[in-house]
Amino acid sequence: MTEQDLLAQSPDDYMNDVQQGFFRELLLSQRTALQARIDAEFMVLREQEPNSDPADVGSAEEQRQWQLRLLEREKKLLDKIDGALEHLARGEFGWCRETGEPIGLKRLLLRPTTTLCIEAKEREELRERHQRAI
């Protein structure tokens, strides 16, 4: 099934077995690609050789810190993908955790790990902005 086929389905078919299968495959594919990137980054970190020149040491440490931050972000995304796969297994995928309303196929195609519909996400962001302003 393609994205166009998915979007062409009736709203009554929301999160039927075919759509769940589509998103399961999408998430598994993203998970495999992400895990390969994480493994490659770890390999690069392990293979870095120490330098004796202080300038090189500083540059290497800055690069290492950048790579570690990237790995941390990718690990968080991996956790979100695993969470989305768990929601699929429980039949909760595609439904807003706050309102219980459908998240929507277009939003799920753009961000398959989302757990909030647009309106709930906007409310969450407003609360976050308000808390930062205090």
From TrEMBL:
Q: Where are the zinc fingers (dksA C4-type)?
A: 96-120
SUPFAM superfamilies per UniProt: DnaK suppressor protein DksA, alpha-hairpin domain (SSF109635), Glucocorticoid receptor-like (DNA-binding domain) (SSF57716)
- Out of the domains of life, which is the source? Bacteria
- Which Pfam families does the record associate with it? DksA_N, zf-dskA_traR
A molecular-function term among this protein's GO annotations: zinc ion binding
Q: Which residues form the DnaK suppressor protein DksA N-terminal domain?
A: 19-87
* Keywords of this entry: Metal-binding, Zinc, Zinc-finger
Q: Which InterPro entries match?
A: DksA_N, DksA_RNA_pol-bd, DnaK_N, Znf_DskA_TraR
Q: Which residues form the Zinc finger DksA/TraR C4-type domain?
A: 91-125
Q: Which PANTHER family match?
A: RNA POLYMERASE-BINDING TRANSCRIPTION FACTOR DKSA (PTHR33823:SF2), RNA POLYMERASE-BINDING TRANSCRIPTION FACTOR DKSA-RELATED (PTHR33823)
- What name has this protein been given in UniProt? RNA polymerase-binding protein DksA
